[in-house]
Design brief:
Elements (H helix, E strand, L loop, with lengths): L6 H10 L13 H13 L3 H15 L3 H13 L3 H14 L3 H16 L5 H14 L4 H14 L2 H14 L3 H17 L7
Length: 192
């Protein structure tokens, strides 16, 4: 519509559609977004703040400290799902199996606090045990979460994990006995 040097054509174009002559808006940098997010969090606008922090994380890449900030603000916003998401990124970034297992246990505990996430909490605990198969505390956590989820097969597997990791002979035999009873009575599987 508009041709250079023709003021009348530019004026007509501006009236018909202002976007024709609009200047592109420079998008905010990741640093600017992070500054805005901190200001929003300080103003107790937690949901907006966590949204911006997630955008910053997407732009800048993984940063453990930023992930903890995301978790803190998401918790204040009442968004356990975003805390879980962030812990998932942390677990994925952990290279040491013990560190990854620790983050998976933490995520399992966050999920356990949400009735709709209990089954996933048990899966996280199972995965953590898979990373550190000799850890009795992780086996016990898995058992507790499997029982909360009500999954008999998962409970039986977790009982096997508890039996294989506990130091006390009485706990070991009790876990084996419970597992056998569960397999026979509820799952109809004598062989395990």
């Amino acid at each position: 519509l508009a041709s250079p040097g023709q003021p009348r054509d530019l004026e007509v174009a501006r009236h018909l559609d202002p976007r024709v002559l609009a200047q592109p808006h420079k998008p905010a940098s990741a640093d600017e977004l992070e500054t805005r997010a901190k200001a929003l969090a300080a103003a107790q606008r937690y949901l907006e703040a966590v949204g911006l922090l997630r955008v910053v994380a997407a732009h800048k890449g993984y940063d453990g400290e930023r992930e903890r900030d995301i978790q803190d603000v998401a918790e204040k916003a009442g968004r356990a799902d975003l805390v879980v998401e962030s812990l998932g990124r942390m677990a994925g970034a952990a290279t040491d199996p013990a560190a990854r297992a620790g983050v998976r246990r933490e995520r399992a505990l966050v999920r356990a606090g949400q009735p709709s996430m209990v089954v996933e909490a048990s899966k996280d605990a199972r995965a953590a045990f898979g990373l550190v198969p000799g850890d009795a505390d992780t086996a016990t956590l898995w058992l507790q979460l499997a029982e909360m989820a009500g999954d008999d097969k998962d409970v039986a597997d977790a009982l096997g994990a508890v039996a294989s990791t506990t130091a006390k002979a009485s706990e070991r035999s009790e876990a084996h006995a419970r597992r056998v009873r569960l397999l026979q009575e509820k799952l109809g599987d004598v062989d395990g």
